[in-house]
Specification:
- The chain has two domains: 272 residues, Zn peptidases (Aminopeptidase, 3-Layer(aba) Sandwich), CATH 3.40.630.10; 114 residues, Alpha-Beta Plaits (2-Layer Sandwich).
- The protein is built from ten helices and 16 strands.
- The strands form four sheets. It has an eight-stranded mixed beta sheet with strand order 1-2-4-3-5-16-6-15, sandwiched between helices. It has a four-stranded antiparallel beta sheet with strand order 10-12-8-13. A two-stranded antiparallel ribbon has the order 7-14.
Length: 393
């Protein structure tokens, strides 16, 4: 049975791919700078006898053809970039690149897809269709490597009927997977405001245009966009996270800068909110006498898992791991550029448990002490291989 053959190979190759993960972890590269990572992936695919092409500078796209290759096409995606975080873990394979760390598990994602690639290639006489392997750059930074890969034609020649992507989940115990149909992650847009006015002495505010006051009013007024305009049943968040201006106690500055993020599950509300944000800034400027320059940097769309494909993926996972080891993924206001794929074709983005409290692997992603239980790699590579070999929509 194909499932058991995949399970056996995943177990046999587990230590080989743990070593690959550790190599990737110790050599992280920032978004759109994944040159060595890309070369490493290319070398691995070459060893596996899998043809590939380069897209979007550092992206790698492999193709594995089984029997009757035109009968179905499934894409499997992994991201390769790391974060600008200095690692604090005391491990043999700690990051060798100062200030750069695989703190979001992309080393695990890339490893799992490489493992699935080897398994699928070795078993290509046992399954039908074609599997497209997508090793993608730049998930952590706008405009998102997924958007660049799509523009470069990654979803063409051949066009997949569906795409699967996995992501480590530090709150989910190792040995488990989780799925969710429909919207599961939010869109993410960056907000930038520059508030300008006439600076001056703090003891004579009547002779100034107080930029600090205007910026403060803007921060408070922005929350009304969410509380009074959004459908209360639609999740949305607006957070101002940076307030920069002034340099001493008795000078009103001539300029203040604000930075923040806006997130939403509903795409229609998302773009309506963009206009409300701009209008609110204009209104605050009129009320305070300041000038306010507003930039809404449109980022990733929400991740919208295709219900039919997600049902298929969950069913395969329950058969592979047993039903009690497959859970429902919670809604998250975090963002992922996998959303671009789900806008273009049916997609399923699922979670791989990596938590192990007994070993102390409890830290969240995007932290300097993030670490995973590497037993998850055997599960991830086997699951991706089984999805590639058997999923149909």
């Amino acid at each position: 049975m194909l499932k058991e053959e995949i399970r056996k190979k995943a177990s046999t190759y587990k230590n080989d791919f743990i070593a690959i993960r550790r190599h990737l972890h110790s050599h992280p590269e920032l978004s759109y700078q994944e040159m060595e990572t890309s070369i490493f992936v290319q070398k691995q695919l070459t060893q596996f006898g899998i043809p590939f092409e380069i897209m979007a500078d550092t992206g790698v796209v492999g193709l594995i053809k089984g029997k009757n290759p035109d009968s179905r096409v499934i894409a499997l995606r992994a991201d390769m970039d790391a974060l600008p975080i200095e690692e604090k873990n005391d491990i043999d394979f700690k990051s060798q690149n100062l200030g750069v760390m695989h703190a979001c598990g992309h080393d695990v994602h890339t490893t799992c897809l490489l493992g699935a690639a080897r398994i699928l290639s070795e078993l290509k006489e046992e399954w039908e269709g074609t599997v497209k392997l997508i090793f993608q750059p730049g998930e952590e930074k706008n405009p998102g490597g997924a958007s660049l890969m799509i523009k470069a034609g990654v979803l063409d020649n051949p066009k997949p009927q569906g795409i699967f992507g996995l992501h480590v989940h530090p709150l989910l115990p190792v040995g488990k997977l989780s799925f969710r149909e429909g919207k599961c992650m939010a869109s993410a847009d960056e907000l930038y405001f520059t508030i300008k006015g006439k600076g001056g002495h703090a003891a004579q505010p009547d002779l100034t245009v107080d930029t600090v006051l205007a910026a403060s009013q803007l921060v408070v007024n922005m929350q009304q966009i969410i509380s009074r305009n959004r459908n209360p049943f639609s999740s949305s968040v607006l957070s101002i996270c940076s307030f920069q201006g002034g340099y001493t106690t008795n000078v009103i500055p001539s300029e203040v800068q604000l930075k923040g993020t806006f997130r939403a599950m509903d795409e229609d509300w998302r773009f309506r909110a963009h206009e409300l944000i701009k209008n609110e800034a204009n209104g605050t400027a009129l009320a305070t006498g300041a000038t306010i320059e507003t930039l809404v940097d449109v980022g990733y769309p929400s991740v919208d898992n295709n219900p039919a494909l997600t049902k298929v993926g969950r069913s395969i996972a329950e058969d592979y791991l047993s039903e009690e080891n497959v859970e429902e993924t919670e809604l998250r206001m975090g963002a992922e550029d996998f959303g671009y794929y789900t806008q273009a074709i049916p997609g399923c983005f699922f979670r791989l448990g990596v938590r192990n409290e007994a070993k102390g692997y409890i830290n969240n992603v995007h932290t300097p002490n993030f670490m995973v239980d590497e037993d998850a790699i055997e599960i991830g590579m086997g699951m991706m291989a089984l999805l590639g070999a058997t999923a149909k929509i």
